[in-house]
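Follow-up to my post from last week.
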Amino acid sequence: MTASDKQANRYRHRHLLSCELLTAPEISSLLDSADDLAEANRARLAKRDALSGRSLINLFFEASTRTQASFEMAAKRLGADVLNMNVSTSSVTKGETLIDTAVTLNAMRPDIIVVRHHAAGAVELLSQKVDCSVVNAGDGAHQHPTQALLDALTIRRAKGRISGLTVAICGDILHSRVARSNINVLNTLGANVRIVAPSTLLPAASDRLGAEVFTDMTAGIKDADVVMMLRLQRERMEGSFVPSTREYFHFFGLDHEKLAKAKPDALIMHPGPMNRGVEIASTVADHSRSVIREQVEMGVAVRMAVLEALAGHLPST
Amino acid sequence: MANAQNKAGGKSRKSAPADPPGGETVFINARLLDPASNRDEPGGLLVRGGEIADLGTHLRRNAPEGATVIDCRGCVLAPGLIDAQVFVGEPGAEHRETLKTASNAAAAGGVTTLVVMPDTKPVIDQVALVDFIQRRARDNAVVHIATMAAMTKGLAGEEITEIGLLKRAGAVAFSNGKESVTNTRVMRNVLNYAKDFGALIVHHTEDPYLSKNAAMNSGEVATRLGLSGVSKHAETILLERDLRLVEMTRSRYHAATITCPESLEVIRKAKAKGLSVTCGVSINHLTLNENDIGSYRTFFKVRPPLRADDDRRAMVEGLASGDIDIIVSSHDPQDADVKRRPFAEAADGAVGLETLLAAGLRLVHGGDLTMMQLLKALTINPARLLGLDAGQLAKGATADLVLFDPDEPWVVNKDLLRSRSKNTPFDEARMQGRVLRTVVAGETVYEYAGVART
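User reply:
Got it. Predicted complex:
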């Protein structure tokens, strides 16, 4: 690929809200930059000035430790000033208040706002009311684009490719924005995507998402190149969607027995935070093929690449 | 065979087979009646090692040498009956019935497999309780006992039970016992979850808001008696909802007991759509009606309540047409203390294991059903529904048999019932047709004392 091709494939949008409309070249260009940044981070050479003099607001309506820290680290490595705002979800309701918050923040003239919200579509709504760039850090059960990108980068670095790989995404698909974003990105990059869950944790028309659907985990991860586990929220474990953690682990938890059905060199992934003994056996989480820590590392690199790409479109200072 | 039965929660041979190793028992001069193979012919049947070794007309008079011979004197030899709805008081209400006394009652009624309902204290909603029932049954019961586990924790209608692990432990189906799940979302999740394990959901449908405080079927009789009633539509309303959910989730569903033509119509439509739907009816709703309550006779207080005679007749027709799949006794022992009360305050329930076949034969003698139709709903149909390796006369099948004289007259005497509770609605009723011998895995577990042993 020539330099001008790379230029042509660059991410050119003002916001990053969803993975649904990302093209394969756009994704690849973000992953390429992130790959370089990851190496630079390891070599402690990453302090860049792409966001020097810029301000970024981390606006989190939903508690998050790792995603917020990851965005903060990424922004600071690029020289941005970072403001963390944790808005209590109890006092804030959707609609008017969200828009009020957006208008207020907009008046402070930030350059980028990173938003996580518990309601699907809230981030897009907010993006319509501000003049700066907006990055979706997770909206309800809708999208979590940087997670899917960091997962794709982790797979690509470990396997050298994504096209043609079989990726089994297992667990609470129904409530998962990670699953939706990953299905989009992995499909766009040519992977064979499978989703594996009990019927109670599958959304309606799950067979229309471009993934093969399994309710039997053993069949679902057979010969998979990548097994991606999802977190099961505690409030969903006690009878409403699955009867108990014991039964869930028995039929849908990743243990060595089930893992043996996947390819011998299958990667083990989890977006974190893990429930050891619920969706993943502790020893599997710490397995030599587990790339869960690598995912966290790639998180910073991918977010740097995304922020850098968005910075290219900011009005010059 | 016996192994599969064990897996399904039943018991295999209790102790050493009655016949010595290599020993054989032959039933000669029988009328072999087997709905699974549509067989109804004179013949004989050879039992070896707890299994049916051979059967057919060639054994009608010819006993193999050395075999113990039982002369059936032309009486009906059929697969042992399977009763898919039996309430037992163990654990929690052993004063009403234990697995042992229920199994004795079953044996006397020709029932060789009974399915216990999860309405116990504690509720059968955990693997340990399924294990408990199986161990107690193995040690104390004379017939096979299978377990239906709860589909919601504590039968509270809120949280799904460990259907996967319970099924693996041997639960043959999942039910909410006498309680209906009113929360539609919970019901959908239960059906959806059960589907992944191929588990059968058995539901008693009665809208509890409509049936609140109801003592009997609503209508003229209730009005004259001054009792509050529940309309049969309370049953059909929830059933219709359930069948919509089945259409949505494509799960396996069995309506525990239907009692009216409205419900039957809904079932027919669901079957016509190709849904995996079946239904049952209790022997009480086939043979009794609300008029039997007379002057507040609480032994006729059952749940769902006895309906009008038109409803009863519709149930018999539904059975004859095959739209109703199985008959259950809905055996529900209640002690005198909770029955001898003002009607509205008395407990629901009637024992039925020992009178199941005789009551059913009333319909045959009355010309409403053929013997084959009756036995089909009591043998192969429940066996197939619950995945039990039982319910047919075939070579290699476990020798679970009932020998009965379809014509012998007798009068029910509640004091002679083997059940620990005596709350039968058939006390002093005249019956025609009597169980002479019940055989479980080749062993005779009941023999009518009035017939000399051959």
